[in-house]
């Protein structure tokens, strides 16, 4: 495997609570890797750690052959872009102003702005289909439009690796597909390495080259969707019994939930 990122024996803790425990994971260059698992399993923490937003208790993360701990912030930001879950910006900021923020890793005191910066911004907005919104205020956008603008900001950063934490959270079905189709196109047409956190297992199976299942801070299994979308494994990781069939349209595994193996909210009170 041509590795873009290598996670080695990584443990991350918040005080006495361990969020990620001794995880080993290689992220393949030029592929779409999806981190999946139940709430609180550590997938978002792992994604943020890849962008060095969490200090490991032990272990390390390497960018190619280089430990990310030894890279300067702007150098790391020129390689790895991150769109956090539910990002925020002032409603009165314009679309172009937000996308311009993606160029901060390329700014220097001697050259605060360049033609390359302008070209990158225009290309990012064109690629995400938001060029016509350049002067619009963020507060006037729909949820789908706003998510495309945030992705444009990350693209303007011009990184080889893009990390997206629940990019379709709070979007309706049509905008979820639009967003993930866009991400897939960036991978296929531009060779970007993409690491996604997704809650929807069927969307994960549809778009991933590689699935990573996490549970209670640890890595349970990783592989192609056809390998991991197995009924017993899904029940073990997600606590839900299901049937797995082939999606007749995309020929990808499709999970049909039946019931929780162990209900998380108890039983309904008797009245």
From TrEMBL:
Gene Ontology terms describing biological process: iron ion transport
InterPro entries: AAA+_ATPase, ABC_transporter-like_ATP-bd, ABC_transporter-like_CS, P-loop_NTPase, Siderophore_ABC-ATPase
Chief localisation class: membrane
A molecular function (GO) term: ATP hydrolysis activity
Any one Gene Ontology cellular component term annotated for this protein: plasma membrane
Short name of any one Pfam family annotated for the protein: ABC_tran
Keywords: ATP-binding, Cell membrane, Ion transport, Iron, Iron transport, Membrane, Nucleotide-binding, Transport
Membrane topology: Peripheral membrane protein
Residues annotated as domain ABC transporter: 5-241
Stored CDD domains: ABC_Iron-Siderophores_B12_Hemin
SMART domains per the UniProt record, alphabetical: AAA (SM00382)
Domain of life: Bacteria
Subcellular location: Cell membrane
Family: Belongs to the ABC transporter superfamily.
Name the record gives this protein: ABC transporter
Organism: Aminobacter aminovorans (Chelatobacter heintzii)
């Amino acid at each position: 495997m041509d590795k873009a990122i290598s996670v080695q024996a990584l443990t991350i803790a918040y005080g006495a609570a361990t969020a990620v425990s001794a995880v080993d994971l290689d992220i393949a260059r030029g592929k779409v890797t999806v981190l999946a698992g139940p709430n609180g399993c550590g997938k978002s923490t792992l994604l943020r750690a890849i962008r060095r937003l969490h200090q490991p208790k032990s272990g390390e993360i390497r960018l190619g052959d280089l430990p990310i701990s030894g890279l300067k912030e702007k150098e790391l930001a020129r390689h790895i872009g991150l769109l956090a879950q539910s990002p925020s910006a002032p409603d009165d900021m314009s679309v172009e102003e937000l996308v311009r923020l993606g160029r901060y890793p390329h700014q220097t005191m001697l050259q605060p702005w360049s033609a390359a910066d302008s070209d990158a911004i225009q290309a990012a907005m064109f690629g995400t289909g938001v060029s016509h919104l350049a002067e619009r205020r963020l507060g006037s956008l729909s949820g789908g439009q706003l998510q495309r603008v945030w992705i444009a900001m990350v693209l303007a950063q011009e990184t080889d690796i893009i990390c997206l934490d629940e990019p379709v959270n709070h979007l309706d079905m049509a905008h979820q597909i639009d967003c993930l189709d866009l991400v897939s196109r960036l991978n296929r047409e531009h060779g970007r390495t993409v690491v996604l956190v997704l809650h929807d297992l069927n969307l994960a199976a549809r778009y991933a080259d590689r699935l990573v299942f996490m549970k209670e801070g640890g890595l349970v299994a990783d592989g192609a969707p056809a390998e991991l979308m197995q009924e017993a494994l899904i029940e073990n990781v997600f606590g839900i019994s299901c049937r797995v069939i082939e999606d007749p349209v995309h020929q990808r595994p499709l999970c049909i939930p039946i019931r929780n193996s162990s209900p998380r909210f108890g039983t309904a009170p008797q009245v």
